[in-house]
Amino acid sequence: MTHQPAIPELTAADPQIAGLVEDEARRQAEKIRLIASENYVSQAVLEATGSVLTNKYSEGYAGKRYYEGQQFIDQVEQIAIERAKALFGVDHANVQPYSGSPANLAAYLAFASPGDTVMGMALPDGGHLTHGWSVSATGKWFNPVRYGVRKETGRVDLDQVRELALEHRPKLIFAGGTAIPRTIDFPAFAEIAKEAGAVLVADIAHIAGLVAGGAHPSPVGHAQVITTTTHKTLRGPRGAMIMTDADHAKAIDKAVFPGLQGGPHNHTTAAIAVALGEAAKPEFRDYAHAIVANAKALAEALIERGFDLVSGGTDNHLLLVDLTSKQIGGKPAAQALDRAGIELNYNTVPFDPRKPFDPSGIRLGTAAITTRGLTPEHQPQIAEWIDRSIAAAAANDEDAINKIAGEVRDLLAAYPIPGYRA
């Protein structure tokens, strides 16, 4: 059993780190990974990420670098850009942001000044830290206005969004977030942003692969700026992109470089290009729709077992579960599930009476298990394991938890992952 690609040089040079890499590969292979922001990349993406491109410094943009020796790097970056433009149907793409948070910061730098009013979804309701939450720089440097969801439906309150936008006239409005299980109404957000005179930023970090595969409506043509990570449903490396219409391209490029960062990570750029190439293939559309089918099947199976899902279900890859009725907090539940071979994260739920580090909910996603080949037929079994694990945690029954972990390993043995050979 070994990591793929093999790591013989690392093993010889630093057996301690190599051992941990091997351990992590085995852990990923032996667990049902339901963290909504994680996936398995292809071996081709892994190889690009670990290539000699990591040796090269490339401050600037293709054709306008501050270092020599860019003959091949420029081609790599331009391929990534063209593939992003073609896949999403956008005028412009910047593939240099190091991650999703810097990508969002670039939108602030491009179109707002410190102290300006900005608007985003409240973190406890499903928004992201960088959409103006108080502990983030975006909540400290700007004047944040936050919208939420309706208590009775768990869905975005667009009436509230419009009311707040017209009252406060923010420079930016963020649509999207990190725990939104329902379709984002980009046309409605665009209409509100236009009426309020704001730039609409669609943060599609979680749903980019679904958008690319036609399993979620696209923000293109509605949002002037689109930010995304590349490592969630898009199934690429840990990186990010910003896509814009023609009118907003120059400001975004200046914000990324020299505004926020120096040289891009060329090995990541290459891996993004590879992932975008994979996402352009017909089978990726099948994959994107399969993610949603798995999520809907898992939601239905959990509801049948008495779980309370925020908004009553899902339209995408993500489920948000309120465990209040199960008499257990999200944190101890998530920790018990991890011991049972089911990896997810504890998460706040809208109107959560508990503290963020000990919230009422758990967040699940189906992108990674879909990559492995699991189908809707497997979801009732996964729901049964989740239910048993939570009951065992409440009863302090570690033997039952260990038994479930063994059952999980037995199932997953038939569904190998890229990056590990059993």
TrEMBL record:
CDD domains: SHMT (cd00378). It is an enzyme of class 2 (transferase). One of its GO terms (cellular component) is cytosol. Its cofactor is pyridoxal 5'-phosphate. The keyword Ribosomal protein does not apply. It is found in: Cytoplasm. The modification N6-(pyridoxal phosphate)lysine is found at K232. It comes from the Bacteria. Pfam families: SHMT. InterPro entries: PyrdxlP-dep_Trfase, PyrdxlP-dep_Trfase_major, PyrdxlP-dep_Trfase_small, Ser_HO-MeTrfase, Ser_HO-MeTrfase-like, Ser_HO-MeTrfase_PLP_BS, SHMT-like_dom. Its EC number is 2.1.2.1. HAMAP family: SHMT (MF_00051). Catalyzes the reversible interconversion of serine and glycine with tetrahydrofolate (THF) serving as the one-carbon carrier. This reaction serves as the major source of one-carbon groups required for the biosynthesis of purines, thymidylate, methionine, and other important biomolecules. Also exhibits THF-independent aldolase activity toward beta-hydroxyamino acids, producing glycine and aldehydes, via a retro-aldol mechanism. Thus, is able to catalyze the cleavage of L-allo-threonine. This is Serine hydroxymethyltransferase.
